[in-house]
């Protein structure tokens, strides 16, 4: 019970970073200026990798993400890892729904700039939420050994889609950051929910892998804090006018990779999931 509650509390870390990102990137002049300038700069890139990301991100992310998550859940069910299957489905659905609600129903982008064109709110990115959530779902259901190998690989694919969507002019860097943080939040929530549910099962027999008693939640906490710090660093860089396009991409990369690694740490916890 304490372990599950700890993960639910950990979900507040990325959520707090989302609040700071919104406050500085969405509701300040400097934040909007820097975010808009970063999007324009990426859109002018002639890099072929960025171009590939733009094509893949704007064309295949929704359908591919759903297929990846469906395959992940099926894989977990075949292995009789019900908790992993439930957590993967929950983190994907929660991330997708929360992103759409925040973007379309809760947040509005104030018109603080006079020459930035369209002012429709695009934070958080629904496409990036799907891509990062699908990456984390894959990590959640893999056996304990391959998790750390797969995490940076699938994170790279999600980051490529995020950069590509910015280059296409669909989203700004803060949109990608906020979407990634929300996925991290739902990774922790899903572990907490599955952990609480498993405690209610009197016939449950936890299979605890060596070294997971303390290492998994502590490592997950550190990784979630790291992803939150990188996100806040981007927002503060915007506010202080010390940002650059390179730093924006670098901090996005750190946030996405650390979130994926946090998913690996969370899902390797033998007291919550069967490993």
Automatic annotation (TrEMBL):
Residue stretches making up the Phosphatidic acid phosphatase type 2/haloperoxidase domain: 116-190
Residue spans crossing the bilayer: 55-78, 85-102, 122-142, 149-170, 176-197, 218-240, 246-266
Record key words, sorted: Membrane, Transmembrane, Transmembrane helix
Superkingdom: Bacteria
Protein known as: Phosphatase PAP2 family protein
């Amino acid at each position: 019970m304490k372990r599950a509650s700890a993960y639910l509390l950990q979900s507040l870390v990325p959520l707090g970073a989302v609040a700071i990102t919104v406050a500085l990137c969405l509701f300040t002049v400097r934040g909007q200026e820097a975010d808009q300038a970063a999007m324009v700069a990426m859109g002018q890139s002639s890099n072929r990798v960025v171009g590939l990301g733009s094509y893949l991100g704007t064309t295949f992310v929704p359908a591919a993400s759903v297929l990846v998550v469906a395959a992940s859940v099926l894989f977990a069910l075949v292995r009789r890892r019900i908790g992993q299957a439930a957590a993967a489905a929950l983190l994907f659905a929660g991330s997708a729904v929360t992103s759409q609600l925040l973007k379309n129903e809760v947040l509005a982008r104030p018109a603080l700039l006079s020459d930035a064109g369209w002012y429709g709110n695009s934070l958080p990115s629904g496409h990036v939420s799907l891509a990062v959530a699908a990456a984390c779902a894959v990590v959640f259901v893999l056996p304990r050994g391959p998790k750390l190998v797969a995490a940076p690989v699938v994170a790279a694919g999600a980051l490529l889609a995020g950069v590509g969507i910015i280059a296409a002019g669909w989203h700004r860097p803060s949109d990608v950051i906020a979407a990634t943080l929300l996925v991290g939040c739902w990774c922790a929530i899903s572990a907490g929910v599955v952990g609480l549910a498993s405690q209610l099962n009197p016939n449950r027999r936890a299979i605890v892998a060596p070294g997971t008693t303390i290492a998994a939640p502590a490592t997950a906490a550190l990784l979630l804090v790291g992803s939150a710090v990188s996100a806040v660093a981007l927002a503060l860089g915007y506010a202080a006018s010390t940002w650059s396009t390179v730093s924006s991409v670098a901090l996005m990369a750190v946030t996405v990779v650390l979130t994926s690694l946090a998913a690996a740490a969370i899902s390797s916890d033998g007291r919550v999931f069967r490993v």
